Amino acid sequence: MSKRNILITGGAGFIGSHVVRLFVTKYPDYQIYNYDKLTYAGNLENLKDIEDSKNYTFIKGDILDSDTLKDTFQKHAIDGVIHLAAESHVDRSLHNPDEFAMTNVIGTIRLLQVAKDAWKNNFEGKRFYHISTDEVYGSVEHGKFFTEETHIDPQSPYSSSKASSDHFVQAYHNSFKLPTVLSRCSNNYGPNHFPEKLIPLMIHNILQQKPLPVYGKGENVRDWLFVVDHARAIDTIFHKGNTGEVYNIGGNNEWKNIDLVHLLCSIMDKKLNRSEGESAKLITYVTDRPGHDLRYAIDASKLTNTLGWKPSVTFEVGLEKTVDWYLNNPDWLSHVTSGSYQNYYQHMYSNR
Ligand code: NAD
Ligand code: DAU
Fold first, then answer.
1. Which residues of the chain have pLDDT under 50?
2. Active-site position among 36, 45, 134, 229
3. CB contact set of 201 (below 8 Å; sequence gap of 6+)
4. Which end of the chain is more exposed for a tag (fewer CB within 10 A), N or C?
5. Whole-prediction pTM value?
């Protein structure tokens, strides 16, 4: 295995932390630089188990800060980028679209430009991998699936900012031959998921016996993939994906929100020794999300057929593992809900 110096942006977030862990443990000859601003969504406690690894370095930085990015590329001779840093929550984007445009669009452009300049048009052995989302395709009617050729039709400020960043990535490939690759994944779930998103929010509220807010009629459909399988797909595409191409990633695992919430209630009733149906009584229908996409469903056959990736974990097993992780890590959940996880950086890194 050759040596590489890889910059992973957003590595302290939910998916990023699983990608960092996979690369640090699977590729001891790679140096992994986790570049993260530590917004509310960045949590270094996600990486406690690998933070002392020799091939891992954390850099507190903003993707909007071109100077720090340039220093990082120069100092560490970065030859690969896996770009996950983003504002990621649709509901927040409805209240604060500017922040999404700044981080997701302008931040991505700055990172592209710094990579292009640092690599001085010598792109041999270089790779810029942009992590995107199936939400850029908008909603898909029942019986149909998003392919890589599906028209881009984002509906929320979040998905619009991601779609725009995708276009800039493609533009840097088309205009400057930057060796990019891009993937669009469906909804992830698993350990370390911030409890503002559906599954961890429901787990948290079931534990606390608080109302379970289901938007609208709960009939929206999402295609769920275990986060470790997304990280595995990112590994595959980073190493084997064709330059300039797009790959869809998905679990072929569609669930209506209301059915998923009932399933979680039932799993947790058993684990918490509550009587069957007790948690479901907490389900509360609330006002729908504005512009709420009805259905996402990914066709991941290009990735499966050409690069050989497929999910390793069934939904049954993945969901069980996820619930168990939250039950076994009450400190993580309480640090996140109290906000005290934001002191971890100060505590761990002030003397380094
Ligand atoms: P997340 O919100 O959990 O983490 C985002 C990370 O980016 C955080 O660590 C945060 O501190 C960091 N960050 C934010 N702004 C930054 C900036 N300006 N500079 C540096 N770091 C910054 O997000 P996630 O759910 O892990 O998603 C990661 C990526 O995957 C995003 O690009 C998202 O669009 C994409 N994605 C997510 C899903 C999903 O289901 N969560 C599915 C498909 C694609
Ligand atoms: O499809 C990939 C996308 O999945 C990613 O790009 C996003 O970063 C990620 O946040 C996720 O977006 P969603 O909007 O699909 O995820 P969220 O967990 O916010 O919502 C999932 C579904 O559950 C959606 O239909 C809205 C609904 N929902 C959500 C919350 C938080 C509820 O009914 N109640 C809730 O409290």
1. none
2. 134
3. 195, 213
4. C
5. 0.98
